Amino acid sequence: MTPNSSTNDVAETEPNNPVSDETSGAAPAAPDEASPIRATAWEIVRTFNEISLSSFGGGLSAWSREMVVARRKWMNDAEFLSAMTICRILPGANQVNLAVFVGTKLNGLRGAGAALAGLIAMPTLLLVGIAALYAAFQHSHAVQHVLGGFAAAAVAMTLQMVWKTGRTTLTSIVPILLFALTFVLNGILRWPLWWTLAVTAPLGIGWAWRRAHRKAQARPPGAAS
Amino acid sequence: MTLTLALQLCSVFGITSLLAFGGGNAVIPQFEQQTVSVHHWLTAQQFTDSFAIAQAAPGPSTLIVSLLGYRAGGVWGALIATAAMVVPTGLIVYGLAKVWDRGHGDKPFRHALQDGLAPITVGLILAGGMVVARQAESHWVQLAMTVVATVVLCATKINPLIVAVCCGFAGYVFSA
Predict the structure, then answer these.
(1) Which of B40, B96, B117, B130 has a CA that sits 20 to 30 A from residue B46's CA?
(2) In b/e form, how buried is each residue of A90-129, taking b as 16+ CB within 10 angstroms?
(3) Is B97 domain-assigned?
């Protein structure tokens, strides 16, 4: 057992690093100039457990962003948002996929398992308990209204996420148009996800690609390698 | 829990999860058909209740499969159904995320993909929020709560949990 080397630099927001060093035994990814952000399996389990338990009534993706981007700073908005869409395209439950994606990025297979366990272990246990209570209380108006309140808060969190991510990503006219077009197609006209993306994704990726090329050309032109 | 039942749970939830393009809610009708009409693990009313519980309870709403599995085969049924739902697709995502991560340097296409998809995702999130808001009983109290909570969340750094608890409490007060 080597002592805790400083290569595994965890997020600063976590003052209480676990003392045990076992998680750093996993082979790190090939060294990079910009060393990728890593996290221990235990941190990943705790974070996704917190995300999951916070999301009564919904708002799970907003909670995921709140924890992964805003608090832990494991990803930036562009990275997180594109991961969300990739996870929507893949089969399976979006939020489960997103957890696995984030976990894999942070700690490979261990991270994926940790994120999955954190996300679903406690809620699965809770659900079975709640199911028993629900039978007794489902016709209670008070319970219905409390649940309605939670649902309202979940919608509010989703709208807040639009506000927060919009401020970091909708920074010029083209992204604003892409955002508006996607919303109209999917939210107003109710096009299915695949049709919506078939129209908007090529436009968005093409725009970002051309913009990157223009930026590259604007840099010193003699720097041909 | 018989072996037959375990295999049935694996096939119903495992195969359906692989067909769940567009998220877990897209396959709810498929689940209903399989668990209620084909296998008779629960009644249509129990299915509707399970859906409502999974929506309101913390965690991914796709965990409705835990409840369906529980009705079919108790605690083991719940575990098998849940594993069948998340493990196969989880492996696919894991594989893709690995490939994604390997091209770590400054791959231009990866950056174009990220920057190009980000604004589109914001549009999809807003569309999703609209759909959920429309599904909820559009009582004016709930609408007002949504507006107030949104403003509070955007304007302050308050912990969203506090807002959620306040909304739940407000819902209770206004129901009286």
Answers:
(1) B130
(2) bbbbbbbbbbbbbbbbbbbebbbbbbbbbbbbbbbebbbe
(3) yes
